[in-house]
């Protein structure tokens, strides 16, 4: 199978860049996309990000989570290093857990216009309680909109019995 040409990857500037700069404040412009070589096939791409950090907007204390991002691409796909740097940019961003996962999903929809996407944050407990917000979206008027509704209603069918994250 032939690889990608430099022309195919002209929008990718972060991957392979030895001068990586880490941004400490939320910055959606860090996200980069490339063309999906299989736009006629529906398939999942899943990212697990166990080192997500943001700040509580009230106390300023850090919040830690594992993020699960899954999507079914259409024409564009998110480049993983840009996603990592983008997620890192939440480090000093103050927002509630629920807002963070929705912001991330909205930014990825704007970047890629996927068929379907879901973002699930599993935050470590603070004050004796953990918060695990889940959001998803499917292209309106397609079977993926129906899929999103179904997955939203059934996303946590097997909740954890004991988890001392």
From TrEMBL:
Pathway(s) it belongs to: tRNA modification; tRNA-queuosine biosynthesis
Any one biological process term the GO annotation gives: tRNA queuosine(34) biosynthetic process
Any single Pfam family the record assigns to this protein: QueF
Keywords linked to the UniProt accession: Cytoplasm, NADP, Oxidoreductase, Queuosine biosynthesis
Residues the entry annotates as binding substrate: 78-80, 97-98
Gene Ontology, cellular component aspect: cytoplasm
Gene Ontology MF terms: preQ1 synthase activity
Catalytic activity, reaction form: 7-aminomethyl-7-carbaguanine + 2 NADP(+) = 7-cyano-7-carbaguanine + 2 NADPH + 3 H(+)
Entry annotated with the keyword Protein biosynthesis: no
Family membership: Belongs to the GTP cyclohydrolase I family. QueF type 1 subfamily.
PANTHER family: NADPH-DEPENDENT 7-CYANO-7-DEAZAGUANINE REDUCTASE (PTHR34354)
Protein name: NADPH-dependent 7-cyano-7-deazaguanine reductase
Organism: Paenibacillus oryzisoli
């Amino acid at each position: 199978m032939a690889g990608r040409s430099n022309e195919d990857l002209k929008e990718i500037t972060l991957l392979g860049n030895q001068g990586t700069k880490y941004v400490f404040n939320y910055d959606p412009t860090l996200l980069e996309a490339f063309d999906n070589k299989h736009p006629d096939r529906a398939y999942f791409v899943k990212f697990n990000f166990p080192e997500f950090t943001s700040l509580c907007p009230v106390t300023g204390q850090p919040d830690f989570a594992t993020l699960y991002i899954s999507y079914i691409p259409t024409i564009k796909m998110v480049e993983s290093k840009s996603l990592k740097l983008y997620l890192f940019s939440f480090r000093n961003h103050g927002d509630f857990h629920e807002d963070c996962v929705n912001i991330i999903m909205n930014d990825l929809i704007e970047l890629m216009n996927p068929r379907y996407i879901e973002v699930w944050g599993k935050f470590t407990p603070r004050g004796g309680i953990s918060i695990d917000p889940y959001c998803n979206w499917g292209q309106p008027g397609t079977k993926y909109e129906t899929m999103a509704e179904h997955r939203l209603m059934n996303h946590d069918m097997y909740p954890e019995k004991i988890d001392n994250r």
